Amino acid sequence: MSSPSYKRILLKLSGEVLMGNQQYGIDPEFVAELALEVKQAKDSGLEVCLVIGGGNIFRGMAGAAKGMDRAQADYMGMLATVMNALAMQNALEQIGVQTRVQSAVQMDAVCEPVIRRRAERHLEKGRVVIFAAGVGAPYFTTDSGAALRAAEMRCDALLKGTSVDGVYDADPKTDPNAKRYDAVDYDTVLANNLKVMDASAVALCRDNNIPIVVFSIREKGNLARVLVGEGVQTIVQKGA
Ligand code: UDP
């Protein structure tokens, strides 16, 4: 595979990767390891935007399934993403990476609001910008938040670091014959309901021609490998 020539990326990490080997919450040791990978990416000359999920703490759907009002539960989920963003900010700054957190739900005492022009300036100055609280509205997910920020910030790719090493044609946990795609078209993902990101996030990337690179962030050094076109990954793009 030829080496991709990204200048600016958006890295989306699912909340669950911050748990490390725990069942819930944040494992600071594991967050520190993730921060090292982000630092490496930045030190290679890339501009890095980050979006972190909240599933390690709270998911709105889970609250709704137990009888909570969905919108109320989703706001709790958004707050969870802010906690994760602050944890990642802490880990990055401890290793000398300058960061700013911008939240779609305004929280002046702890972070900035989302202001695109200000985010641009942060990136120019070599800071990592961590976008929290998704799109700032219930009934969405941080995948949609990631797609939105990737489009808004004109990122060259959306890298989705998760617990699986790519996109499969069936669930690899239940189907031993499941095959991983190296590359797949947006429309195949949508038509076959392949598990990459929510349909709205995939459609937003398709409409703005932003490739989605799905890879496992659980393996050390994988982000660096994926960024040079090596390593196990699936790329979702036009005409694949
Ligand atoms: N959420 C939301 N709107 C958004 C982003 C997130 O309501 O724009 C809520 C939603 O309840 C979601 C939770 O925040 O379940 C955590 O985000 P997500 O499930 O995307 O986290 P991940 O699965 O990536 O860890």
Automatic annotation (TrEMBL):
Kinase keyword on record: yes
Where the record annotates domain Aspartate/glutamate/uridylate kinase, the positions are 7-216
Enzymatic reactions: UMP + ATP = UDP + ADP
Question: At which positions is UMP bound?
Answer: 54, 74, 135-142
Q: Which UniProt keywords apply?
A: ATP-binding, Cytoplasm, Kinase, Nucleotide-binding, Pyrimidine biosynthesis, Transferase
Q: Which Pfam families match?
A: AA_kinase
Q: Which residues form the signal peptide?
A: none
Fetch the InterPro entries from UniProt.
AceGlu_kinase-like_sf (IPR036393), Asp/Glu/Uridylate_kinase (IPR001048), Uridylate_kinase (IPR011817), Uridylate_kinase_bac (IPR015963)
Molecular function per GO: UMP kinase activity
Q: Could you tell me which pathway this protein works in? A: Pyrimidine metabolism; CTP biosynthesis via de novo pathway; UDP from UMP (UMPK route): step 1/1
Please state how the activity of this protein is regulated.
Answer: Inhibited by UTP.
- First-level EC class: transferase
Q: Which domain of life is it from?
A: Bacteria
Listed EC numbers: 2.7.4.22
* Main localization of the protein described in the UniProt heading: cytoplasm
Does the keyword section mention Acetylation? no
What are the subcellular locations of this protein? Answer: Cytoplasm
Binding locations of ATP: 12-15, 55, 59, 162, 168, 171
State what this protein does.
Answer: Catalyzes the reversible phosphorylation of UMP to UDP.
Q: How does it assemble?
A: Homohexamer.
Family designation: Belongs to the UMP kinase family.
- Please give the name of this protein: Uridylate kinase
Source organism per UniProt: Novosphingobium anseongense
Q: Which gene encodes it?
A: pyrH
